């Protein structure tokens, strides 16, 4: 009997230490720094860069945030986007910025709706950068060599979704340039493609 109790305790001990030792990457759960990979430390129960060491592992990799559950689906969310360069790779998607369109609420930069003939885009949350690119122009270049200059009027929300404000749509990926029909037309790309690779830069 004593042996059985000992075995039970040994198994319990082994399981708790094993599960407690799962190593987390950026934004993963943790209770102390031993739970975090590499040089990451545990802040507010999440693994992240150590401000004292000054590493920027998590910033450079743009780790996902807490997933958003919409009904039975779970979606990845991001508060960051890949770094912006002279030619940043993105996915162009199609958005209807007009009233009653699939864009949901009025564009957040100017609180206005926009006709499909206007050269306007929404950028993923990280690139929208807390409104810093509001009403600025970007140049979008397609693989067919065509390019177009369009104005940033909204955020393609990579953190929230599935609600009325976002017209029931899931959160945006973090590498999206969500363009009006005019943007697609100017680039000479068939809107039925839905998602195409582009590069963008500040105009
Ligand atoms: C984006 O730029 C890269 C590097 O300049 C290039 O290799 C790639 O083909 C470009 N993509 C598109 C869609 O134009």
From TrEMBL:
It holds the Pfam family KWL1. Residues 1-22 form the signal peptide. It is found in: Secreted. InterPro entries: Kiwellin-like, RlpA-like_sf. It comes from Daucus carota subsp. sativus (Carrot). It comes from the Eukaryota. This is Kiwellin-like. The keyword Signal applies. The keyword Signal applies. GO terms for cellular component: extracellular region. Belongs to the kiwellin family. Keywords: Secreted, Signal.
């Amino acid at each position: 009997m004593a042996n059985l109790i000992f075995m039970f305790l040994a198994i319990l001990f082994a399981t708790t230490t094993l599960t407690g030792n799962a190593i987390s990457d950026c934004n993963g759960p943790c209770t102390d720094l031993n739970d975090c990979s590499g040089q990451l430390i545990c802040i507010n129960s999440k693994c992240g860069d150590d401000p004292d060491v000054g590493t920027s592992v998590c910033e450079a990799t743009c780790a996902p945030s807490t997933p958003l559950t919409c009904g039975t689906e779970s979606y990845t969310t991001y508060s960051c986007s890949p770094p912006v360069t002279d030619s940043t790779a993105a996915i162009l998607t199609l958005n209807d910025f007009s009233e009653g369109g699939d864009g949901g609420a009025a564009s957040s930069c100017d609180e206005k709706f926009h006709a499909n003939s206007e050269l306007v885009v929404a950028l993923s949350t990280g690139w929208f950068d807390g409104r810093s690119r509001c009403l600025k122009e970007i140049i979008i270049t397609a693989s067919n060599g065509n390019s177009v200059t369009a104005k940033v009027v909204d955020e393609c929300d990579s953190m929230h979704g599935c609600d009325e404000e976002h017209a029931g749509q899931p959160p945006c990926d973090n590498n999206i340039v969500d363009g009006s029909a005019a943007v697609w037309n100017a680039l000479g790309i068939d809107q039925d493609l839905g998602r195409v690779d582009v590069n963008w830069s500040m105009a």
